[in-house]
Design goal:
The structure holds 2 protein chains of 2 kinds. Chain A is of the alpha+beta class. Chain A has 6 helices and 4 strands, in the order H-H-E-E-E-H-H-H-H-E. In chain A, helix 4 crosses helix 5. Classes of the chains: A alpha+beta, B alpha/beta. Chains A and B meet through helix 1 and helix 2 of A and helix 13 and helix 15 of B.
Chain lengths: 156, 415
């Protein structure tokens, strides 16, 4: 593989391409918390559903939407890492992820979210592209809106 | 570079590139391949130097000083009006209103002609391929003034549907047709002369948005018989913050002012004020002096190269780009207008335009991606977004080849 190709890989790692192409949990959930997210700058849209189970922990998370590989991959990975989280843990992880996307690292989050941040690490490359950070954080905004009982969120 | 020989003896793209300091910059360690000139063009040394010279040697406020510096600066600034009048072949320099950009020019007409001259119950006709700047001011006029807003269709080929234009004009209610002279998304030119003729026969005035067209093709507002024509400096190799509105004198005379303030009045008292004569009536406040000086330099730079040579160069580039892009599996070029310029929108199967743009940027290639401030046109073609490559006098065949090769690599990513 050529050098130019390798360079493209550090932003679009296989995990992102895979989740962008084959998003996980791409479905609706009945009777779940729900919110829509929209990035008015580019028109990307996602809807997020969260089902809370015993102990107010997230039992199932799902999404649907359309957008670039980064926004879809981020939403897909999010639905995977949210399972089993309490509301507070989910919010705290969203903060950690936003730091990761904006700065490329989140040293202080490691202690609390080490495993999840490692899972989300492939998205850290967007930090180099300020205009793409919102693609990565869109689904997370929608998730927090759903937890708060707000119907919608925007990246603006 | 292994560019093909210049298309005309007079046109040497490498000599032109040498006049643009920014083109020697590198991006991510590669030479900059700038294919986003339709958003804003790079600036030649002539423009940069004219503005620096003014700031270093000859600068004061204009139109009011009784001192040497002010008088010299006024001359230099007002020379921009003469250059713009010549550039558009206006009948008189007084038909040139200097604005901030095309958007301000359109808003000025929507406000002063729309509210001042048009009557409720009349209609404004735009098209499906307008930039938001030629949609929103008319929506604001509609909502404030009871004017109907009509939209002419665009064909599948990406051309203005002239049957639709004629149908909308048929009842005689359209008072103003406001249509782009060249689409910023599809690169299609519109048949401006036919639009003007049809509109005038139906009793309507015409505003042409020349933001794109004026950069690529000689515009003669008298030959077109256009009533209003707008363009912006920064797409014409000039600075940001300066644009031009051409308006026929008889219309500008009838229109009330747009913004109020200094420079646009002849006398002021607390009871009433009298307006300055046209065009100063529409130019409130200290104008963009340095930008005007820069725009004059840009116009002269374009005139030195000449539109015939520039058009031939850009046509050859566009043909080459259409051939190269169409040959890539999965690439779809949007629109196939007969009369088109160097703006090409495309999609890549299974890849979102933003991902395409980011991956091209990784390879040093700047294109635009998104809805290009033309959301209704995107919807017309059933799209959310496209990537767009656009060409200028300094664009080379080598750069287009680089785009095609980079796109081929991007495609394998999303295949």
């Amino acid at each position: 593989m050529s050098e130019a190709f390798e360079e493209l890989r550090d932003l679009y790692q296989e995990v992102i391409l895979d989740h962008g192409r084959h998003p996980r949990n791409f479905r609706r959930l009945d009777g779940a918390l729900h919110a829509k997210g929209e990035n008015p700058m580019c028109g990307d849209k996602v809807e997020v559903w969260l089902k809370l189970g015993a102990g107010e922990r997230i039992e199932d998370a799902a999404f649907q939407g359309r957008g670039c590989a980064i926004s879809i991959a981020s939403a897909s990975l999010m639905t995977e890492v949210l399972r089993g989280k309490t509301r507070d843990q989910a919010r705290s992880l969203a903060d950690a992820f936003r730091t990761l996307a904006r700065t490329g690292a989140c040293p202080v989050c490691d202690a609390v979210h080490e495993e999840d941040i490692e899972r989300l690490q492939p998205l850290a490359g967007v930090a180099e592209y300020p205009s793409r950070v919102k693609c990565a954080t869109l689904a997370w905004h929608a998730m927090e809106a759903a937890l708060k009982g707000e119907g919608s969120a925007t990246t603006e | 570079m292994n560019d093909a020989p210049p298309v005309t003896a007079a046109f040497d793209v490498q000599a032109i590139r040498a006049q643009f300091p920014i083109l020697t910059e590198t991006v991510r360690g590669r030479p900059l391949v700038f294919l986003d000139s339709a958003a804003s063009a790079q600036k030649p040394r002539a423009v940069i130097e004219a503005m620096v010279h003014a700031m270093e040697r000859q600068y004061a406020n204009v139109h009011r000083g009784l001192h040497w510096m002010s008088e010299r600066t006024t001359e230099a600034y007002e020379a921009c009006r003469d250059a713009a009048a010549r550039f558009l072949n206006a009948g008189s320099r007084d038909e040139i209103v200097l604005t901030r950009n095309s958007t301000e020019g359109i808003n000025l007409v929507a406000h002063s002609y729309g509210r001042g001259v048009m009557r409720a119950g009349q209609a404004v006709l735009i098209s499906e391929m307008e930039h938001h700047s030629n949609i929103v001011p008319w929506q604001m006029l509609r909502d404030a003034h009871g004017v109907e807003l009509r939209v002419a269709r665009v064909t599948e080929a990406g051309e203005l549907d002239m049957d639709s234009v004629a149908a909308h004009l048929a009842d005689g209610k359209v008072g103003l047709v406001a249509i782009t002279h060249m689409s910023n998304v599809l690169g299609s030119y519109t048949p401006a002369e036919r639009i003007v003729r049809l509109a005038h026969e139906a009793g309507a005035r015409v505003l042409l948005d020349g933001s794109q067209a004026a950069v690529h093709r000689k515009v003669d507002v008298q030959a077109l018989d256009a009533d209003f024509y707008v363009f912006t400096g920064h797409k014409l190799y000039g600075p940001t913050g300066i644009g031009v509105l051409y308006g026929k004198a008889e219309l500008l005379d009838r229109m009330p002012p747009f913004l109020g303030g200094g420079d646009m009045i002849s006398t002021v008292s607390f009871e009433r004020s009298e307006w300055a004569r046209v065009p100063h009536k529409f130019e409130a406040g200290t104008p963009p002096i340095l930008e005007g000086i820069g725009l004059k330099a840009a116009i002269e730079w374009v005139e030195r190269i000449g539109f015939p040579a520039m058009e031939a160069h850009e046509r050859a580039l566009t043909d080459h780009a259409l051939a190269r892009l169409s040959a890539i599996e999965g690439v779809t070029v949007i629109g196939r207008a007969q009369d088109r310029g160097g703006v090409i929108s495309f999609t890549l199967d299974r890849a979102h335009a933003h991902d395409v743009a980011t991956l091209l940027d990784r390879q040093g290639i700047a294109v635009r991606a998104g809805h290009h401030c033309a959301e209704p046109l995107m919807r017309r073609f059933g799209l959310d977004s496209t990537a767009r490559a656009s060409f200028a006098a300094y664009t080379t065949r080598t750069e287009i080849d680089a785009l095609a090769e980079a796109l081929t690599r991007v495609r394998t990513f999303f295949a």
